[in-house]
Amino acid sequence: MSSEMKHEPPRTTEQVAAGTPPPPPPADPNPTVIEEAGSRALTEALRSSFVIVKILMVGLVVLFFASGIFTVPSQQRAMILRFGKPMGLGPAQLIGPGLHFSFPAPIDEVVRIPVGELQSARSTAGWFQTTAESEASGQDEKDTGNMTLNPAVDGYTITGDGNIIHARATISYRITDPLNYVLNFVKAPTLVTNAIDNALFYVSSFFTVDRAIRYDQAVFHDMLLQRVKDIVNEEKLGITVVSCDELKLIAPRQVRKDFEAVTTAEIERRKARDEAQAYASSNLTTANGIAAAIVNQGRIDANRFAQEASADAKYFQDLLPHYLENPELFRARLQAEAMGRVLTNVQTAFVIPTSTEGQEPQLRLLLNPPPRRSQINEPIR
User: Fold this and answer.
1) Coil, strand, or helix at residue 70?
2) pLDDT value at position 200?
3) Distance of alpha carbon 381 from alpha carbon 374, whole angstroms
4) Scanning 94, 133, 291, 365, which has its CA 20 to 30 A from the CA of 65?
5) Taking every pair of C-alpha atoms in the chain, what is the biggest distance, in angstroms?
6) DSSP 166-193
7) Closest to 124 in 3D by CA, of 93, 81, 150, 156
8) Mean pLDDT over all residues of the chain?
């Protein structure tokens, strides 16, 4: 319904029955005043809106440029890429620690380079499929029973004797040439991981499965580290390899029990061999001691006998002139000296005179004389 109909004056019953049209409504007394008031309100509303929009636009512009302020820590360097092109030339392309400004994306891109931090790369190309949960709990290395190795998802390396092992390694390195590391390679960390993969497969071919797993893991470690360094230097990645923090070599889980049985037998063999060597060493030491004692005693006796023989020889050499001078007297004197030594502790001595009839005298001794009478009457104590 229009505004005119709303302000239509009332009609009488006769006018309605006769069909007489209603009279026109009365004219608005102040149309200009109403229009000016509405225009003024609309203008003020638009002016206020434009002010708010201007403030918001200025704030967005300030916020846009403020988002380009960034800080570089002391252990890092940064590089600004403007539309993908590095700003500056040579060493000036690197930004040192401190507060810096760059245009926000997509104009500029800030690339941070951790030159003072130790980086690490891990190779799992030779490792079987696993999850972080199973690896943390140690369930990934347990015997898998009848499950077979799936080459589509399980990695492995081949040893020099045609066996397969699972191998993984973690290498630590430092970025020594940041410009080369960032500008010459799209994904330098991926190249470092590929270098470790190459080294694992390469070094495994020089070892048998027993040497790699049980005997020469230290040699495997050194060869792996050297191989990674050679690849890094050859590719000029701009890094320095520091150390190999992790090297793990295990037999396939499907045959773990067999390898453990071999390991147990090897341990028992070494134990038996060590015990035999210890027993042999103990007996050999004892025998060497006894032999040394016998040899030493023999040398002592030999020296004593030699000294005694030398003393006897000297004694007889000294007596020889006296014997040659008067043999009868010498023999008589020696006999007297011998008898003196023999009869030193003799209590009863018998002198047998020489027979004048040419017969040899006889000496008869009572070896068991009867006890004296005084001894028979003495009581037994």
Assistant:
1) strand
2) 95
3) 15
4) 94
5) 227
6) EEEEEEEEEES-HHHHHHS-S-HHHHHH
7) 156
8) 80
Q: What is the mean pLDDT of residues 152-166?
A: 91
What is the full DSSP assignment across 179-248? HHHHHS-S-HHHHHHHHHHHHHHHHHTTS-HHIIIII-HHHHHHHHHHHHHHHHHHHT-SEEEEEEEEEE
Amino acid found at 78 = A
> How many whole angstroms separate alpha carbon 349 and alpha carbon 337?
16
* Measured distance CA(208)–CA(361) in Å, rounded: 102
Residue 3 binned pLDDT confidence (cut-offs 50, 70, 90): very low
Tokens 């004056």 sit at which residue? 9
The per-residue pLDDT for range 122-139, each reduced to its tens digit, is: 999 999 888 777 666 665
**Alpha-carbon torsion (160, 164, 170, 175), positive or negative:** positive
- Nearest-angstrom CA–CA distance, 215 and 237: 33
Averaged over 303-325, what is the pLDDT? 89
pTM over 0.85? The answer is: no
128, 149 contact by CB (below 8 A): yes
Beta-carbon contacts of 9 under 8 Å, excluding residues fewer than 6 positions away, are: 22, 23, 25, 26
Q: Which position has the token pair 């109403």?
A: 34
Distances (CA, A) of 34 to 22, 40, 44, 219, 377: 27, 10, 16, 99, 182
Specify the pLDDT at position 1.
42
Q: How far from 138 is each of 142, 192, 271, CA to CA, in Å? A: 7, 27, 30
Residue-level pLDDT at 71: 79
Residue 72 pLDDT greater than 80, yes or no: no
> Rounded to a whole number, what is the distance in angstroms from the first to the last CA of the chain?
170
Distance from C-alpha of 100 to C-alpha of 87, rounded to nearest angstrom: 13
| Nearest CA among 145, 88, 81, 78 for reference residue 112 | 78
The tokens describing 29, both together, are 């007394």
pLDDT at position 221? 94
Q: Are 114 and 85 in contact (CB under 8 A)?
A: no
CA-to-CA separations, 182 to 86, 106, 195, in angstroms, rounded: 10, 19, 17
